[in-house]
From TrEMBL:
Entry protein name: ABC-2 type transport system ATP-binding protein
Keyword Magnesium: no
Gene Ontology biological process terms from the UniProt entry: response to antibiotic
MF terms (GO), sorted A to Z: ATP binding; ATP hydrolysis activity
A GO term from the CC aspect: plasma membrane
Cross-referenced Pfam families: ABC_tran
InterPro entries per the UniProt record, alphabetical: AAA+_ATPase, ABC_transporter-like_ATP-bd, ABC_transporter-like_CS, ABC_transporter_ATP-binding, P-loop_NTPase
Top-level lineage group: Bacteria
Organism field: Amycolatopsis pretoriensis
High-level lineage: Bacteria, Bacillati, Actinomycetota, Actinomycetes, Pseudonocardiales
Domain annotation ABC transporter: ranges: 7-230
PANTHER family, per the entry: ABC TRANSPORTER ATP-BINDING PROTEIN
């Protein structure tokens, strides 16, 4: 397998009655990328994932996975998926279900490696029906890994995991991706996208509203905040400054959202030489996300 993207979505559209769940989504992901698909409830993330996996047929557009159709890629064992509600048989043990799934693949990882990568060593003899929510997620992760896929697709993988479980899970994902394999995960957790993804695809109302490295997505919403103590200045005064898009005064400190923070700091000091304790920071992904959502609410 050489060249070419890990997968490509071209103009993907899916409607459910009058709802357009996914509306012309185009995304190309290179091999070895770890991509977060981020968005609020109903943004179209799960529908996009379902089309990527060939579980739902698009109304328009096309999906290519490892150079073929999603079905072909799945049949060839190139794709491993961890879905939100994948059922597990209650009566079989973790060891048995891993063995079973490993045995269905043409070129699987050894069962012992699957168990180790998913951190299930101490749960091998446990019946699946007796697992906690977070443990069940780890078993689903193990089953997704069993076929040694080139592409891992994870729909809200850490939803039921505690803090330690999440940390261990992401360490396992990074290790997996380090070998040049590709990961796409859908999430609500902005911090996870920020900490663990190389790239963020931000969706809202079925449309991709930002796509790029985490730092670029932050910058796309033009994002810097200038904070300063500005005695005697009102919100109206500050809102007039060049480069400033919005103002908040909190406990005697001004917070200026800036499209151009260089212009803003010059204008601030020219107009208010008494301004002190000046601090300029980039927006976090959370703020970027909120800004994009707010833009839409205002539109
Ligand atoms: N089978 C379906 N029938 C009708 N409408 C659907 C169906 N599946 C999804 N939708 C609608 O399509 C839109 C996108 O849903 P989707 O589940 O893809 O969003 P999401 O981003 O995954 O949301 P969440 O984060 O809540 O899981 C929503 O408005 C949803 O109600």
């Amino acid at each position: 397998m050489t060249g070419g993207p890990a997968f490509e979505l071209r103009g993907l559209t899916k409607r459910f009655g009058s709802v357009t769940a996914v509306d012309g989504v185009s995304v190309e992901v290179a091999r070895g990328e770890v991509v977060a698909l981020l968005g609020p409830n109903g943004a179209g993330k799960s529908t996009t994932v379902d089309m990527l996996l060939g579980l739902t047929k698009p109304d328009a557009g096309a999906v290519t996975v490892e150079g073929g159709s999603p079905r072909e890629a799945v049949d060839r064992g190139l794709v491993g998926a961890m879905m939100q509600n994948g059922a597990l048989l209650g009566d079989v043990t973790v060891g048995e279900i891993v063995d079973l799934v490993v045995s269905t693949h043409a070129n699987p990882l050894p069962a012992s490696e699957v168990i180790a990568r998913a951190g299930l060593e101490n749960l091998v003899k446990r019946r699946c029906g007796k697992l906690s929510g977070g443990e069940r997620q780890r078993v689903r992760f193990a089953l997704a890994l069993a076929g040694d896929p080139k592409l891992l697709v994870l729909d809200e993988p850490t939803a039921a995991m505690d803090v330690d479980g999440r940390r261990a899970f992401w360490a396992a994902i990074r290790e997996y991706a380090a070998g040049g394999r590709t990961v796409l995960f859908a999430t609500h957790y902005l911090a996870e996208a920020e900490d663990y993804a190389d790239r963020v695809v931000l969706m809202r109302h079925g449309v991709v509203v930002a796509d790029g490295p985490v730092a670029e997505v932050r910058a796309a919403v033009s994002g810097r905040v200038l904070k300063a103590a500005v005695p005697g200045a009102t919100e109206t005064d500050l809102a007039r400054l060049a480069g400033v898009t919005s103002v908040q005064l909190r406990a005697g400190r001004a917070e200026l959202a800036c499209a151009d923070s260089d212009a803003a700091v010059r204008a601030l000091l020219a107009e208010f030489p008494q301004a002190a304790d000046i601090e300029i920071t980039a927006l976090g992904l959370e703020e970027a996300f909120l800004a994009l959502t707010a833009e839409e609410a205002a539109a």
